[in-house]
Amino acid sequence: MSPAPVDEGGLPGLLGWRLAQARVATQGVFDAEVAEPLQLKPAELSMLELLRANPGIAPARLARALAVSRPQATQLLDRLEQRGYARRRPSGSDGRGFEVHATAEGQRCARDAMARLSAAEAAVLAPLSGAERAMLLELLGKLAPQVR
Fold first, then answer.
1. Taking the mean position of all CA atoms in its chain, how far away is CA 99?
2. pLDDT higher at 94 or 87
3. pLDDT, mean over the chain
4. Maximum pairwise Cα distance, the chain
5. Distance separating alpha carbons of residues 40 and 19, to the nearest angstrom
6. CA-CA 20 to 30 A from 63: which of 1, 17, 44, 147?
7. Angle 59-66/42-53 helices, nearest 10 degrees?
8. What is the Cα–Cα distance from 50 to 45, expressed in whole angstroms?
9. DSSP of 54-73, one letter per residue?
10. Pairing state between β 86-90 and 98-102
11. Which domains does the chain have, with CATH numbers?
């Protein structure tokens, strides 16, 4: 006879609790599909995909999009540059600033990582119908601007 399930009290009604439980499932997927084979951390993939989608983005805009400080964004960018995935260039419109680009290798890595992650996340989302998946992403997207 198995023990009775643990009473979670009010936890299931908390967004943070539900997100933490979902994070456990998605972290395993990320580790298996991206972190281990491609040696990328979640923040590095996020930055790389933003660079791929926004060629020439200013570092300050990149930091805001990632909801990190400018020094944190600089550290991430330094790591991507060291791996040959990104490069900074002086800004064409502002000689004092920089614009950031994904290199061809960085673009390839971002496309590969995103494809691997999308395919693997489909298994996590399999219990949901297509409409439920779309609604989940839409509702989470409505919350995301609050952190930027």
1. 21
2. 87
3. 92
4. 72
5. 22
6. 17
7. 130
8. 8
9. STTB-HHHHHHHHT--HHHH
10. antiparallel
11. 17-124 (1.10.10.10)
Instruction: Residue 37: name the closest of 139, 143, 120, 129 by CA.
Output: 120
Structure-token pair, residue 74: 């600089």
Token digits of residue 20: 């933490």
Indicate the length of the chain as a whole number. 148
pLDDT for res 93: 73
The residues facing 99 across adjacent strands are: 89
Is it the case that residue 130 has pLDDT exceeding 90? yes
Mean pLDDT in residue range 48-53: 97
Percentage with pLDDT > 90 across the chain: 84
Helix, strand, or coil here: 148? coil
The stretch 17-45 carries a mean pLDDT of 94
